[in-house]
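Before going further, learn to read the protein records used in this course. Taken together, the tokens spell out the fold as the letters spell out the chain. A record is reproduced here so that you can trace the correspondence yourselves:

***
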Amino acid sequence: MRTRVLVLLMLVVSVGIQASDHVLDATKSEEKSKAPAVLTLSLREAQDYAVRENRTLRNASLAVQEAYAQRWQTIASMLPSVDGSYSYSNYCGYSATLSMMGNNVNISMPNVGALGVTASVGVTGQGVVGVLLNNIAIDMKKISLEQTETELRQSVMTSYVSVTVMEDIVALLDSSMQNLEHLADMTQQSVNIGVAEQTTADQLKVRVNTLKNNINQSKRMIELARNTMRVLLAVPASTELVLTDNADELLSAEHVLNLLGQHFNIHNNLNYRLLEKTTDLARTNVHMAAWAYGPTVSLAYNYSNQQYYGEGGMRMTPPNLVQLTVRMPLWSSGKRAAGVIEKKIAYEEAKNTLAETTQQLGIQYKQLCYNLNNAYETYLNEKDNIDVTKRVFESTTNKFQWGTASNLELTNASNDLISAQSSYAQAVMSLINAQIELDTFMNNK
């Protein structure tokens, strides 16, 4: 019989495991089928898509729900609770022997069933303060969720702009390389017929290879930025990303000027709000420690009923019982007093930190505005420089083709174009970072 039961259990378990495997496989295939093959996104659409799909942000949202559940546990601990029990005792025909006045009397022990119901409620000052602490914890989790969303949006923006800027640079270098390759082919043909030196053709080949290396490096950076976006958007590597906004639209003077002219409200700063809640938490902890001196009041009602099966039996337990308990702490050798002092000191530290941070945030705001203004000016200069170096390179290439420019002049023009490309990319990323830092500081959406 036991062998049959064990075999049956093993069959049930194996069927359950296979069913769960099929469910997991179906879930994976379903997630894979949901993954879009092509995503066409503006910057705002990419940010909104990441907010919907990013798993890190989902975990931050779940942390808020977890904080709500913890608060309800604290509240429920002070609400009435009801417990029920039932027990059955079988003495298997046992009889107790009672000696009375020299005579032995056998008393049979009947089978008995006992039903009990207990309702109780207990309230403490620390429990009430605990609910206040849970409320503060919920607010802090919400601020952390907002911070996570802001950081996610800014990360998407960084990757998005990196892709668009590097694609523009690759297009620029591709055009320059085509001209340089054409010039290198013509020079090699001149060498073959004996009207040019091989050294000149070799130097041109070196410039072509240098441009190719820069183009390939830029393409790798583009793919890296696209893969970063795929991670942020929670899409597989096979998903093609089509970005509709160009770099000029994302790096507009209007946005920079609006950002620099925006009034700074310290209460919008997420770090300040989080530190403010930390100070509230420290103050509430003082109340929590002080309530260690408070009483604990509990009320309980118990109902019990015994049913004897057979003859005899004595009911010694009353069917109804009400208990009111008030417990008051009297002496703890200074432990509770030290706890209150500790929390008060922590509260003073939190207030000092908040005051110092308030002062520092004003200074930080001015510095971030200066950084953004400086980054924008640098961006405009580098954008102009890359246009100028491109024209110079094209002009020098034409002059070299007609023999009015030297090989050294062509090499310098090529180096200047590559250097301008690098400086422009660095200026763009500095401008984006400066915008992101100030937007995050101001808590702009």
About this structure: The chain has one domain: 37-80+123-294+332-442.
